[in-house]
Structures are given as C-alpha cells and as structure tokens.
C-alpha cells in the first residue's frame, strides 16, 4: 500500500494550507506514527534474528562441524520450506516467503563454504532464484562443460535443464551422467508456479540426495529396440518401483524413469530390472505446488 506521506508530501507538514490535510478521514497522524514505530520494531527484530542466524552459520563453519560434508543439503532445505509453508498465514504470498528464505539459505551457504553454481544460459534464472542473487554464477556453453566444471571441483553444483519427454537425444545430458559419482540432488523451482506441474531445472552435485518424506528417484534404463512405454512402466511396477513419469528421448536406446521415493544403488528392487541395465542417477524432494 502506498505510503500516504509519499503520496501526498503535504502530510509531512501539517502547517501547509491544503484544507484536505486537516480532515481526519484523510489521515490520522498519530495512527500513522504508531504504525511506523511498529514497522521499525518489527524490522529491528527481523534484523536481529538474521544476524543471529548468520552468526550461527559462521560458527558452524569456524568449528568445522561440516568438515567432510557438503554445506548444501537440499533435503534439509526442502524440509525448512515445507515447515514454513505449513505454518504460513495471512496475505503475504508463499512465493514471497520462498524467495526470502532462499536468499537467507543462500547467504548461509556462502558463509559456510566457497559456494558457486555452474549453469547454462537457459538455467541462469532458476539458479539465481534458488541460490541467491549474490552467489557466484559461472555460465557454460552446454551441459558437458558444466558437468566437467562440477567434476573438476570448480563449482559444487551444476544447474541443468530438466529432462523432457520426446527431447532430442543430443539434449539428454542425463544419458551420459557419470553416476554414482555425479547425481541429481534437487529440482527447481522448489515452489512451482500456478499451473506449473513439472520442474524446469535439476541440480547435479558430487553427493547423494537427502531423503525427505516426499521424494522422486531417477533411474536410467536401457531399452531394447521396439520396447514400448507401457512395457517399461509395467516392468517398474513389477519391481515394486512406483513409476510417476517415464521420459523417452526422440531416438536412442535410453529411458529415464521417475519413481516414487529415492532409490539407492544397492536397492534390491533393481535386480528385477537387470535386463534394462538400471542406473540410479539421483533424485530430489518433490517441489511444492502453488495453488492457482
């Protein structure tokens, strides 16, 4: 809502001649002053808590409490946002809550480690929205150089386009993903927009995804020539792996199965898929839908 003082500078000086400014139905200076004082108190309290949170992140880093582990924990971040969404009330949109906390979480990542993101031109917006405006972003010409930068340790994560059913085989970067060394660990955006059913990008890292109560697992399959979508779905069902989506590139022998729940490389259910040469390539916490 526009500030009445900014909208009408005369409110800042009651001595001005405009008679409308003296009308109590137009403005109540004492109420406005009280509201501003409350805004200031809330801002100070928020700032105090943000400084306290940053100090705790810095303390964890200084004490080496995350030594040997990644500072980016996508499952933990998903749990934080789900908890906040569940308790959220009032007129502030959930999108604003997500954006605020993504910046706060990204700031913690930068405090705890030398964090940067490898991305492509088409995934820059998703990377910025998830990892914050101030996180260093290194743009690469395609998935192969982005994954090479990730493998070399130049960036802790790479943000690549989400696989799409019927995409050209040359665009299916997941076919050559060096799993289990590199794995998908998150999907972006975490809060889907109205009418958006699928994520637009996936995050790849050098560690496995964290488990949450609602996850999707990704399994790369090698299908025989002429094998149908229905046959692959039936094979997954028979193995006890509930298929949520099956992605078939336009040409090539591979398929990408998205199943309910994360799947480990040693999961005994994979044995039933042995003829399809299954390879687990990671997974992610299910994004949250935004009501229309």
Automatic annotation (TrEMBL):
Tree of life domain: Bacteria
Start and end residues of each Chorismate mutase domain: 26-116
Species: Muricoccus pecuniae
InterPro entries cross-referenced by the UniProt entry: Chorismate_II_sf, CM_dom_sf, CM_II_prokaryot
A GO biological process held by the record: chorismate metabolic process
Enzyme Commission numbers on file: 5.4.99.5
Protein name listed in UniProt: chorismate mutase
GO terms, molecular function: chorismate mutase activity
